[in-house]
Design a protein that fits this description.
Length: 413
């Protein structure tokens, strides 16, 4: 590491969205701006995508702390009709990140820009220099290569991005008329975000716009460690979602705290007098092992009795029949669910409604989630940021008749 690099890695830079360079506070140093684009396998859900954002953001952080003369701005891909967003009566394509998250807070962790903003600045068109399409299928590799823990290997030169993407549908976030790429390449990849960062630092020195597709193939270097949490903390929800969850808690659950990420240990002042539950149904029933509604209701009942509570908030993607079955088993208790009217649905969209569900669960006195669901994981993280005791957070429904503990991914900042 050169002296210059050491100085620069300790210097804070700030990037304005409409400038060509990022400047240090005293304007002594400047770095040119380059853009990293990314996309994910279209079938992945909202909460897995949020995890992939952290992997990418940590990669950008790593590059920015190590590169001497440029700084990466991450281009936020619009949210387009995700597989689980089933409400057909609302428009759910090309949604901006600011619809769900506080952009200023995201920018505090790494420099980000919405794709639409960048497109407007470039008079409606963009030419990406290079696309890397990560492949996790390593069949073509020899044994020796495969046995290496991490590798990054060009496996095929693919001149037209369309050729790859037509298989999975959708090109360049539905902007294929306005966005194109000079060169696309499939890359056989196995490794972490830091490992990819090492390669990208070199590659970026000759390019300005680079895209990583199928970026979920890249895993975390430090899952659950300090940089993970710093980034997770910067993913604060947008104000109108926080506000709606607050109104709901006040009106239906008698819980009216508006504190957000307060000091740890002050949490008892604002926890709600209810149990929060996430019951993942939908496609999960088909692809994972799930419990019957009867078993779930028994575990909720036992916990309510043990804690001498009578209110439970249910977040679920289950259908009305499943919800009514659950309610039937819990008829002596107050069972609450957030059901948006059409106006709210149009305003918040399916993604916003799911965040409201998550926020209401986050403030509960005790949370029970669904094993292996990233939706439940995001609620657990929120509770960690809010400062709840971990014993009230890392719980899930279990085969063994009673609630059991999940892995504890505790806050490390
Ligand atoms: C089976 C696998 O499951 C993985 O899901 P998993 O980690 O639970 O979590 P997600 O990746 O978020 O995908 C589940 C989606 O289902 C909806 N959903 C689930 N639970 C709720 C809820 O309580 N309230 C509301 N409003 N919506 C809910 C929501 O759109 C959410 O993004 C997927 O990422 C994979 O692609 C695959 O489908």
């Amino acid at each position: 590491v050169s002296n210059q690099q050491k100085i620069l890695s300790k210097t804070e830079f700030s990037c304005q969205n409409d400038e060509e360079f990022c400047y240090s506070k005293d304007s002594e140093y400047k770095k040119s701006i380059k853009y990293l684009f990314y996309d994910i396998n279209p079938v992945e859900g909202f909460n897995l995508r949020r995890d992939v954002y952290i992997r990418i953001a940590n990669l950008v952080g790593k590059i920015n702390s190590e590169s001497e003369n440029f700084r990466i701005v991450l281009v936020l891909p619009p949210w387009n009709n995700l597989y689980h967003w089933k409400n057909m009566q609302v428009h759910q394509s090309r949604l901006k990140w600011s619809h769900f998250f506080d952009l200023e807070k995201l920018n505090e962790y790494i420099p980000v820009i919405e794709l639409e903003t960048l497109l407007k600045r470039n008079e409606g068109s963009l030419l990406i220099d290079q696309v890397f399409y990560l492949e996790s299928n390593h069949q073509n590799l020899g044994k020796e290569e495969f046995n290496r823990i991490e590798f990054f290997q060009d496996c095929e030169n693919t001149p037209y991005y369309k050729e790859i993407t037509k298989v999975i549908g959708g090109e360049f976030w539905s902007y294929s008329e306005q966005i194109s790429a000079k060169q696309c390449q499939k890359v056989s990849f196995r490794g972490t975000n830091h490992f990819l960062a090492k390669h990208l630092i070199k590659i970026f020195s000759n390019l300005n716009h680079l895209m990583i597709d199928r970026s979920e193939v890249m895993i975390h270097e430090e899952y659950g460690q300090s940089e993970y949490w710093k980034c997770r903390k910067s993913m604060k929800y947008s104000e109108n979602l926080i506000q709606k969850a607050f109104e709901f808690r006040t009106k239906y659950l008698n819980n009216s705290t508006d504190q957000f990420y307060s000091e740890r240990n002050s949490v008892l002042k604002f926890e709600g007098n209810y149990i929060g539950v996430h019951i993942r149904r939908g496609d999960f029933v088909k692809y994972r092992r799930t419990l019957s509604i009867l078993k779930i209701s028994q575990q909720i009942k036992n916990k309510l009795d043990e804690m001498k509570l009578n209110q439970v908030f249910i977040a679920t993607d289950g259908n009305l029949k499943e919800f009514n079955e659950l309610k039937g088993y819990l008829s002596e208790y107050q069972v609450v669910r957030y059901t948006p009217d059409l106006e709210e649905l149009k305003k918040f969209k399916d993604g916003g409604v799911s965040i409201i569900d998550q926020l209401i669960c986050a403030y509960s006195k005790f949370f029970i989630g669904t094993k292996e669901s990233t939706f439940s994981l995001r609620i657990q993280e929120e509770r960690e940021l809010l400062g709840f005791d971990e014993s009230t957070t890392f719980n899930c429904f279990c085969e063994e008749e009673k609630i059991c503990q999940t892995s504890k991914w505790v806050l490390k900042l």
